[in-house]
Amino acid sequence: MKLATWNINSLTVRLPQVLDWLAANPVDVLALQELKMSDDKFPHAALMEAGYQSVCFGQKTYNGVALLSKTPATDIVRNIPGFSDDMARVISANFDPGIRVVGAYFPNGQEPGSDKFDYKLAWIKGLRDWLRTELVAHPHLVLMGDFNITFDDADVWDPEGMRDQIHCTDEERYELNALVALGLHDAH
Predict the structure, then answer these.
(1) What is the pLDDT of residues 138-185, one digit of tens each?
(2) Rounded to two decimals, what is the model's pTM?
């Protein structure tokens, strides 16, 4: 099974590129983040013409996630069950042959010490709590998306200059590694 993920930063703007990319790279499932559109504006028909079914969880202007697939999605869940959130950041579904795909757009966090940073850390903890139970029910689970966190200094062009800056804090890296410690593996 071929899986891919892409933060497209507006599906309205990048739909032609997505369609071209899918034609050149026929993946089984593509997770999209940062759709920046409401569900009623989602281009299901254009994607269906390209051979892809789609499920989405949109939000006007910001956020939004989708899963595009060659086969139907089942057991679709939008957002993180048990975590109260107004943002459209997570969509998950099952695909044959028994793969659970979770597409996620992690919060940016703005800057360490801010309310948005606190929200980011709480959001990741909520995701981890939910994924712990999802992994029991779905041992073949893939978490894909835009994590907005670097695993370590090898992911940063200027580790010293970025130290303790957003995406590079010890707190964010701890939470990301705690997700992996649930039994996930970094595909990179």
Answers:
(1) 999 999 999 999 999 999 999 999 999 999 999 999 999 999 999 999
(2) 0.96
For the range 110-113, what are the long-range contacts, defined as Cβ-Cβ under 8 Å and sequence gap of 24 or more?
A: 110/166, 111/165, 111/166, 112/164, 112/165, 112/166, 112/169, 112/171
Neighbours of 58 (CB within 10 A): 21
Going by DSSP bridges, is the β-strand pair 141-146/99-105 parallel, antiparallel, or unpaired?
parallel
Domains located in the chain, CATH noted: 3-180 (3.60.10.10)
- Six-digit token string for 157: 């062009």
| Tens-digit pLDDT profile for residues 59-106 | 999 999 999 999 999 999 999 999 999 999 999 999 998 999 999 999
How far are the Cα atoms of 64, 85, 89 from residue 60, in angstroms, in the given order? 8, 15, 12
What are the Cα distances from residue 90, in Å, to 41, 155, 160, 171? Answer: 18, 24, 32, 21
- Is the CB of residue 5 less than 8 Å from the CB of residue 36? no
CA–CA distance, 8 with 12 (Å, rounded to integer): 9
Output the CA torsion sign for 143, 132, 99, 84. negative
